[in-house]
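Cross-posting from the modeling subforum.

Setting up a comparison between two proteins and wanted a second pair of eyes on the formatting. Protein 1 (sequence, then structure tokens):
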Amino acid sequence: MAGERPAWWWWASIGTALVVLMAAPSYLDIADQLDISIIFILALLALSMGFLWGQGGMLSFGQTAFFGLGGYSYAVLALNTGETTSAFFIAIALSMAFALAVGYFMIYGRISDIYLSVITLVVTLILEKGIRATSGDQYVIGSVRLNGQNGIPTVPSLQLPWNPGTELFIDGVFYLSAALLVLVYVGLRLLLASSFGRVLVGIRENERRVELLGYDARRYKLAAFVLAGGIAGLAGVLYGVWGNFVSPAMFHLNQAAQVVIWVIVGGKSWLIGPVAGTAVVQYLSNWLGTQGVGQVSLWLGVVLMIFVLVFREGLLPTAALAIAWVRRRLGRREA
């Protein structure tokens, strides 16, 4: 919970999860490593939405815009310079700069929450349509053609900074995406336990009251928006590294809708909820695809309706409430 310092068992759980993740590639084949790595990467994207929406109260459909911008920025920079480490960090910085520019005009312009959602959705659609319209030979950045809806192939893998010329293999991408997911989650959890996190959650609950206490709510909301944009950009960079390919589908409205589904299924009130929601929905999508049921998106829509109508708080909060109810019942019987 925001404002509470993590207990010892939380740190023990994080350490155990890291040990398990670092040992996992030894027991997984390459196909499984690829499948799990993409879940880690998409969970980062969902975590950016979960932090901004669940903790900051801002529903943004622009996370896929920052996601795609991060991937394209990395691809263009890495292909032009041949140096991937600086391209990695510059791409994230560009995503944050774009989030700063968009967020400043919305938040300092006192745009209401519903219009913030609409504007971020429009920005995402504009970027997608713009990228799809770059199929001509004249759309070149440096020596890299954008290729329109065909995307940019042969995106370089990350090179090890201490060993130039050596690229990360599939297991290296697994380790990197797992470590960054845990690192970002821990960082956000500690941030929410700080005074910044307490003020941010206070703004979510009652912005006017927080301002009457002397805090500039716009500054806190803008900082959260930029941070979430950077996390989404990081996910986009990792996506380009994972598949060695970026395309306009990264900006697509379907991708934006999927992020919302992941957050709702896992539970937006818990920071770990979007991560769990991503894992559940992606596993379910893969399973439905192998069963030949067709129209996987239709079945995912049914799942979303069930969670919205029955499990309104999301998977993890509902499970916690169920466990607490069982414990109370058992306690009454013992009494």
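Protein 2 (same layout):
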Amino acid sequence: MSQLTFLGATGQVTGSCYLLETSNSRILLDCGLFQGSKSTELQNEIPFTFDPASIDAVVLSHAHLDHCGRLPKLVKEGFKGQVFSSEATFPLLELMLKDAAHLLLRDTEWENKRRERAGKPLLQPLYTLEDVEALLSLRQAIPYNESRQILSDIDASFHEAGHILGSSIVQLEIQEPDQVKTLVFSGDLGNPNAPLLRDPAIITKADILLLESTYGDRDHQPLDNTLKELRETLHDAAQSGGNVIIPAFAVGRTQDLIYWLGKLQREGAVPQQQIFLDSPMAIGASQIYADHAHLFNIDDPEFTRVAPNGWQAWLSGLRYSETAEDSMAVNRITGGAIIIAGSGMCTGGRIRHHLKYNLWRHNAHIVITGFQAEGTLGRTLVDGKKATIKILGSEVNVAAKIHTLGALSAHADQSQLLQWAGHFEQPKPRLYLIHGEKNAALSLQTCFHRSGWNANIPKPGDSISF
């Protein structure tokens, strides 16, 4: 008998981590960072509830930090197994984790200066660049749709999830003494409206299904409406002379945004002449995307032809701001520019500087294009409940216009989740809703119950046997 324990992204969106124990093996599905409020992020400091040295392998759905960000900590504390992922996840994992280690070290150094002055004990970073390098040496790639034996009693395969480059639906075949059990982990399912990647693969058979529920309580607005609002926002900003500030996740959302801006530019709907990508990580991720253009869909022949030549060939006026000096120069631009920067939830990075310099301007426009977790600055802006916000030590008046463009999300919405799960044949798998805030998971659970399919919502630490 096998056992699955829910350790993260359970009752919340971040910290994806699930422990699978069979009679012969122990593996993790993902090992991600908890992100959001300070109390949420403190969960990253809590010791693992298992011995990392006892884990035989990790199966990774994709390279977003809420799915991979604690892997170096796992290695630091004794893990020596292999980390299996899709091929395109390889370069993105290196990019994301090295950047995360750099930020962790920087933040720890700043905090330790404060602690030293106060006579308090100094802190150690969650992990270091050396831990990242050790983790990267353990990577093993499996091509999409190819089943491979990863342990004596477990075969794994990865299937297109359509969320970011390399994102995967994970399928595990577990050899029990008298039968084979199939566990399917959706990872993060992509929005079929996403312009670059292929739609999520259809899976039809499983005994256990772990299904994300990020947008389980809503449907995205129609894509045409979203693009219309984006056109109007760009036009209004140009008319009023303000900047358009777009917080964006470096991997996935940024590349989709550049695609759509290029499409609108070809329609004459992008009056701004200056478009800045102010994120070294997003610049690196964009190059990785261009290197893997063979994985893009082929709905747009013109883009498919231009993509291998790079993003600046697709979007005229796109400028890369790589250095801190470049970013500070962008801060001095008071209008007429589009500025794309991370982090996507406004929890750190250069976007906070751009918000500090633009949020108080009545002619500025802030465009939110992705999920904003509870406790983040991005969520505060979306909720619109505060007239002033503290950013980088300054009280800033919220005078800019805030736009939320849900259809640009890289996650499937409620109807899309139900449609994807509806392809599973009878007998339906045991269904567990993960990776969603409470209201989202409960709403999706209700939808499944109406169709006669019992959906369970596990609590952190819950275990199931099968």
